[in-house]
């Protein structure tokens, strides 16, 4: 198993991306610490993991609250002995479908600051322990809008680009201590809740089939990445098999973006 004996924290673990990532980590042998805002949803993921033979604990953590994030990371290390992997799948509300000229400064800047803040706080809390250990992996998550110019997506593309920049800075800061920082960039998955609605808004259509077909045609593989595939890539990046990789963005777009 790729992550046997490792301890991993997944923020936003009950969400459309966090859940499959947590499941993949557990399947590969990690003890998974599920963090998010709603205990009942988190516990559902924990129960699912345990029923499959994995190990999981759920805790309510506000990933924008620095003290809460630090306390949770400290508690994980006190309980498990070390912290090996973090993955941040926290979503930040933002406005789409409105031209920038019709949005306020706060509408645009607020979500950028919020997304950067949650990645910074969770990464920094983990890094305090990982640097002492001499190893660890910090995984961030963005979308294709970080690279591709879409109209009327508000601050989303700006925020994703900022997180990718932050990931490179984290890699530079913590690399000398043996800590890797890697960003996963997806294009959205058709089996993730509400993704098709966002795509329809961008495309100006009410047809889910039409928008999925249009998105599929943009990829080199002729298909879209499923959420479980995102989880699998996250597990691989968290493992020692990816040990040379840091300060990079892993392209999980089925070839929508050609690097």
Summarize the structure.
The protein is of the alpha/beta class and 259 residues long. The protein has helices at residues 18-27, 39-51, 66-80, 105-133, 156-174, 195-203, 208-217, 227-238, and strands at residues 7-11, 31-36, 55-60, 85-88, 136-143, 179-186, 248-252. Strand 4 (85-88), helix 4 and strand 5 form a beta-alpha-beta unit.
Mean pLDDT: 94
β-sheet strand percentage? 15-25%
Low-confidence stretches: none
Radius of gyration: 18 Å
Read across the widest sheet, the strand sequence of neighbours is 3-2-1-4-5-6-7
Distance linking N and C termini = 29 Å
CATH topological fold name of the largest domain: Rossmann fold
Sheet having the most strands? 7 strands, parallel
Number of domains: 2
Helix run count: 8
Question: Features of this protein?
Answer:
8 helices; Rossmann fold; 259 residues; seven-stranded parallel sheet; single chain; alpha/beta; 2 domains; 16% strand
